[in-house]
C-alpha cells in the first residue's frame, strides 16, 4: 500500500499533522493536569490552615468555659476543703454544659485528684503542669491520646490566691468535630491512629464508609502523606496528613479530586474530538494534494512503463508537462532514444560476430530450435586448417584480417544460403535450404585455392575442411544437431577428402565414447575392470619370472571393450592417469601377495604419454611400492616411442628419475614409431620390446626376420635386453632362440590370464 508516492505523501501529511496535534495535546493535557494538581494542593494547604485555626479557636473557647468554673467561689471552696463529692458533681455538670468528654481535677504538682472517668495520665499531666509553672502560663491547651483516641485537653489553674489546683477538660476529636471542620473547609476530615496489631489506619472520618476503608488501605503509612499530598490509587482523593503532636495520632485532609478529573477528562475528550476532526480534514486535504501532485508523476510512470515494455519498436510520445516534471519528461524522452539505440546495438551484438559481421552461435541455435526437425537443406561446417599457425606466425591482426576475408569468400560462395555464421575461431557455418552436393564442395575448394593477400605483394593460400550434415540426419534438438555437425567436422579435419558427409551411426559412436569416459570412475569402484597377466618366458633358462599386466573392461551396457578402444579414448579425454594409478595399485597389491609367498615375479605396467609428462610420476611409483612393501625390482614400466616423442626433454627427465630409482624400463612396440633406432641411444631404458607386427609372421616373411635379427643385434650392442611379443608358433620361437632374443611373449606360451590362472600356469610351466 505504501509503495506508491501518492500513499506516501498522504501518510506524510497525516503523520506530520498527527505528531503536531499529539504534541500539542500532550502539552495541553500535561499542563492542565499539573495546574489541577497545583490547585488541589493549594486547596489542601488552605484547608490545613483552616484546620489549625479551627482547633486553636476551639481551644480558646474551651479555655474560657473552664475559666468560668475556676472563678466560681463555691467550687474554689470545695477544692480547698477537698470535698470530693461536690468537686466530682461540679465537674460532671460543668463538663456536660460545655460538652467536655472528660473532666478532671489536678493538684498544683500535677497529681490527679479526681476525674469523671478512670484515667492513666498522671505522668502526662504532671509534665504539662510543670511546664506551665516553669513558663509562667496561666492555662494549658494541648492534644493527648487516651485509649488510641485523640483528645483536646484544656487545663486552667484555680487560685486562692495561690494555685491550689488545676481543672482540666478533655474534648474528643471525633466524627462530630470532623463534620464541623468539614463544614468550614469544604473538605473531608479524618482523625486516625495506627492499630498496633495490624498497622492499619483506623478512626473517625467524614468519608463514606466504603471509600474510607479503601482509602485507608491505599495510604498504608501516614508518613507518606505528611509532607505533600498524595493521590489515592483510583485518583478520587488527594490526601494530606496533619501531625497532631501525639504518637500514632494524625489528622488527614481529603480533597475530592473528582471535579478536577471531570474537568481534565472533558478537556481530553474535546482534544480527541478536535484531533480526530483535524486528521479527517488532513486526510481529505492530503488526498486532494497528493492527487494533484502525483498526477504528472502518474503520467510519467505510464510513459516509463511503455518505454520499459518495449513491445513496439516505435518511439512513445512523451507527455507534455510544465515545471520540473517537464524537465524530467524531456530527460526520459532522451533516455528512450538512447535505450532504443542501445537495444539495437545489443541485439546486433548478441546475434552477430563482431569481427566478420556474420551471425553467431546464438543466432544459429535460435534458428535451429525454430526449424528442426527439417527435411530439406543442410548444415555446412567450414574450418580453416592450421589457422593457429597463421596467428602465431603473422600475428592476431593479420589473423583477424584473414578471417574477415574468409567470411567475404563464403558470402560469395553461399550467396543463396539462408544463414552464414561464424561459430568460433576459424569455424564457420553455412545453412542452406537446398541439398549440398560434391560439386558445391569442389566449387568452395576452388574458391579457396585463390591466394589471400596478406600485405601488398605478400599472399597466402588457406586450406579448408568441409563437413556436411543434411537436415534429414539432424535431430529435433539444436544441441544434438550441432553435436553431429561437430562429429563430421572433426572427421573432415582429420581426412584429406574434398568434403565429408555425415553418415548414420557416427553419433552413436560418439555417444559410445562419451559413455566410456563418463563411466570410468564408477567402473573402477564397481570392479568392472580387472587385470590379466601375459607371461614373459626367458629364453636362456627357459623359465618365467616376468609378465605384462594388461587391462580388461566388461561394461554392463556396452559389453566387452577392447583395450585399444577405451585406452585411446581415455588418453584423448585426459582420464588415462586415473586408470594408470588404478592399474599400478592393483598390480602391486597382487605382487605383494606373491612376493610374501617367496615368488619373486616382476610385472610390467604400461604408461601413456600423459603419465610420462607428469613429473610427479616417480614419487607416485615410489609411494606405491612402499605402501605394498615391495622392492623396486618387482616393477617394470613400459613406454611407447610415440609417448616419448610428445615432449622428449620432459619425458627423458621423468625416465631418468625412474632409472635412478632402479625401476626396470622398456620401450614397447619398438620399430613402429617415428623415432626408429636413432633415438634409442638417448633413452634411459633397460629393455626393447619388438612389436608383434615383426614377430607374428617371422617364420614366413624374410623381411620381418631380417628386421628382427638386426634389431636384436643392435639392441644388444647398446646394452639392452630384447623381448619379442606376438610369438604364435614353434617355428617363430625357434628363430628367436637362434637370434638370441632374451625373452619371448605370445600366445605360443599363453594368452593373458587372470592372477590365479597365471600363477597356476607358471607352476605347471616350471614343473613340465
UniProtKB/TrEMBL annotation:
Name the Gene3D superfamilies on file: 3.30.70.270, 6.10.340.10, EAL domain
Q: Which UniProt keywords apply?
A: Membrane, Transmembrane, Transmembrane helix
The GGDEF domain, residue ranges: 375-504
| Pfam name, any one | EAL
* Domain (HAMP) ranges: 291-344
Q: Which residues cross the membrane?
A: 271-290
Concerning PANTHER family, the annotation shows: CYCLIC DI-GMP PHOSPHODIESTERASE PDEF (PTHR33121), OXYGEN SENSOR PROTEIN DOSP (PTHR33121:SF71)
Q: Mind telling me what this protein is named?
A: GGDEF domain-containing protein
Q: The EAL domain covers which part of the protein?
A: 513-766
Q: Which domain of life is it from?
A: Bacteria
- Which NCBIfam families does this entry report, sorted A to Z? GGDEF
InterPro entries xref list:
Cyclic-di-GMP_PDE-like, dCache_3, EAL_dom, EAL_sf, GGDEF_dom, HAMP_dom, Nucleotide_cyclase, Rev_trsase/Diguanyl_cyclase
Amino acid at each position: 500500500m505504501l509503495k506508491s508516492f501518492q500513499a506516501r505523501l498522504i501518510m506524510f501529511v497525516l503523520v506530520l499533522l498527527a505528531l503536531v496535534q499529539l504534541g500539542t495535546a500532550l502539552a495541553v493535557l500535561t499542563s492542565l493536569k499539573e495546574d489541577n494538581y497545583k490547585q488541589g494542593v493549594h486547596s489542601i494547604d488552605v484547608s490545613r490552615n483552616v484546620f489549625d485555626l479551627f482547633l486553636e479557636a476551639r481551644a480558646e473557647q474551651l479555655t474560657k468555659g473552664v475559666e468560668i468554673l475556676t472563678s466560681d467561689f463555691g467550687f474554689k471552696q470545695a477544692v480547698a476543703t477537698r470535698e470530693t463529692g461536690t468537686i466530682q458533681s461540679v465537674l460532671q455538670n460543668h463538663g456536660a454544659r460545655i460538652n467536655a468528654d472528660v473532666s478532671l481535677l489536678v493538684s498544683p504538682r500535677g497529681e490527679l485528684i479526681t476525674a469523671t472517668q478512670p484515667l492513666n495520665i498522671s505522668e502526662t499531666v504532671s509534665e504539662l503542669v510543670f511546664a506551665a509553672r516553669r513558663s509562667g502560663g496561666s492555662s494549658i491547651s494541648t492534644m493527648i491520646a487516651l485509649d488510641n483516641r485523640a483528645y483536646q485537653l484544656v487545663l486552667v489553674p484555680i487560685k486562692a490566691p495561690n494555685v491550689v489546683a488545676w481543672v482540666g477538660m478533655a474534648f474528643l476529636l471525633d466524627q462530630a468535630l470532623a463534620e464541623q471542620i468539614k463544614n468550614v473547609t469544604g473538605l473531608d476530615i479524618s482523625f486516625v491512629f495506627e492499630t498496633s496489631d495490624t498497622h492499619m489506619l483506623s478512626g473517625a472520618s467524614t468519608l463514606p464508609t466504603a471509600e474510607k476503608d479503601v482509602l485507608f488501605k491505599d495510604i498504608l503509612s501516614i508518613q507518606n502523606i505528611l509532607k505533600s499530598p498524595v493521590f489515592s490509587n483510583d485518583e478520587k482523593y488527594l490526601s494530606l496528613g496533619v501531625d497532631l503532636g501525639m504518637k500514632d495520632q494524625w489528622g488527614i485532609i481529603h480533597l475530592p479530586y473528582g471535579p478536577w478529573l471531570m474537568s481534565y477528562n472533558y478537556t481530553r475528550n474535546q482534544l480527541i474530538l478536535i484531533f480526530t476532526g483535524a486528521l479527517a480534514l488532513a486526510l481529505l486535504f492530503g488526498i486532494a494534494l497528493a492527487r494533484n501532485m502525483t498526477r504528472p508523476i502518474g503520467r510519467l510512470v505510464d510513459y516509463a512503463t511503455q518505454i520499459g515494455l518495449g513491445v513496439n519498436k516505435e518511439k512513445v510520445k512523451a507527455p507534455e508537462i510544465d515545471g520540473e516534471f517537464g524537465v524530467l519528461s524531456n530527460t526520459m524522452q532522451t533516455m528512450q532514444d538512447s535505450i532504443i539505440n542501445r537495444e539495437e546495438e545489443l541485439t546486433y551484438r548478441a546475434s552477430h560476430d563482431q569481427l566478420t559481421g556474420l551471425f553467431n552461435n546464438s543466432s544459429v541455435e535460435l534458428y535451429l530450435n525454430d526449424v528442426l526437425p527439417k527435411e530439406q537443406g543442410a548444415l555446412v561446417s567450414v574450418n580453416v586448417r592450421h589457422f593457429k599457425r597463421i596467428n602465431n606466425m603473422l600475428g592476431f591482426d593479420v589473423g583477424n584480417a584473414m578471417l574477415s576475408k574468409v567470411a567475404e569468400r563464403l558470402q560469395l560462395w553461399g550467396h543463396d544460403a539462408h544463414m552464414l555464421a561464424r561459430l568460433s575461431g576459424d569455424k564457420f557455418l553455412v545453412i542452406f535450404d537446398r541439398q549440398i552436393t560434391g560439386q558445391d564442395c569442389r566449387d568452395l575448394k576452388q574458391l579457396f585455392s585463390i591466394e589471400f593477400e596478406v600485405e601488398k605483394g605478400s599472399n597466402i593460400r588457406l586450406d579448408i575442411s568441409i563437413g556436411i550434415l543434411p537436415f534429414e540426419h539432424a535431430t529435433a534438438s539444436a544441441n544434438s544437431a550441432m553435436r553431429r555437425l561437430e562429429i563430421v567436422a572433426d572427421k573432415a579435419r582429420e581426412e584429406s577428402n574434398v568434403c565429408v558427409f555425415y553418415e548414420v551411426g557416427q553419433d552413436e559412436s560418439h555417444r559410445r565414447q562419451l559413455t566410456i569416459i563418463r563411466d570410468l570412475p564408477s567402473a573402477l569402484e564397481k570392479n568392472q575392470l580387472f587385470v590379466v597377466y601375459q607371461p614373459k618366458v626367458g629364453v636362456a633358462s627357459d623359465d618365467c619370472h616376468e609378465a605384462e599386466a594388461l587391462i580388461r573392461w566388461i561394461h554392463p551396457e556396452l559389453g566387452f571393450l577392447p583395450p585399444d578402444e577405451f585406452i585411446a579414448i581415455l588418453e584423448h579425454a585426459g582420464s588415462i592417469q586415473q586408470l594408470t594409478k588404478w592399474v599400478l595399485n592393483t598390480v602391486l597389491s597382487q605382487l605383494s601377495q606373491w612376493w610374501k609367498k617367496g615368488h619373486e615375479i616382476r610385472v610390467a605396467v604400461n604408461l601413456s604419454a600423459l603419465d610420462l609428462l607428469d613429473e610427479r610420476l616417480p614419487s607416485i611409483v615410489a609411494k606405491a611400492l612402499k605402501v605394498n612393501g615391495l622392492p623396486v625390482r618387482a616393477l617394470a614400466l613400459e613406454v611407447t616411442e610415440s609417448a616419448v616423442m610428445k615432449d622428449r626433454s620432459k619425458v627423458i627427465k621423468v625416465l631418468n628419475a625412474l632409472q635412478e630409482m632402479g625401476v626396470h624400463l622398456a620401450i614397447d612396440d619398438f620399430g613402429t614409431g617415428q623415432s626408429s633406432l636413432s633415438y634409442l641411444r638417448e633413452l634411459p631404458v633397460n629393455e626393447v620390446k619388438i612389436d608383434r607386427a615383426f614377430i607374428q609372421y617371422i617364420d614366413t616373411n624374410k623381411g620381418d626376420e631380417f628386421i628382427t635379427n638386426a634389431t636384436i643385434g643392435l639392441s644388444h650392442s647398446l646394452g639392452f635386453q630384447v623381448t619379442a611379443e606376438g610369438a604364435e608358433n614353434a617355428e617363430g620361437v625357434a628363430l628367436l632362440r637362434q637370434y638370441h632374443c632374451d625373452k619371448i611373449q605370445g600366445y605360443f606360451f599363453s594368452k593373458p590370464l587372470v592372477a590365479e590362472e597365471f600363477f597356476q600356469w607358471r607352476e605347471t610351466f616350471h614343473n613340465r
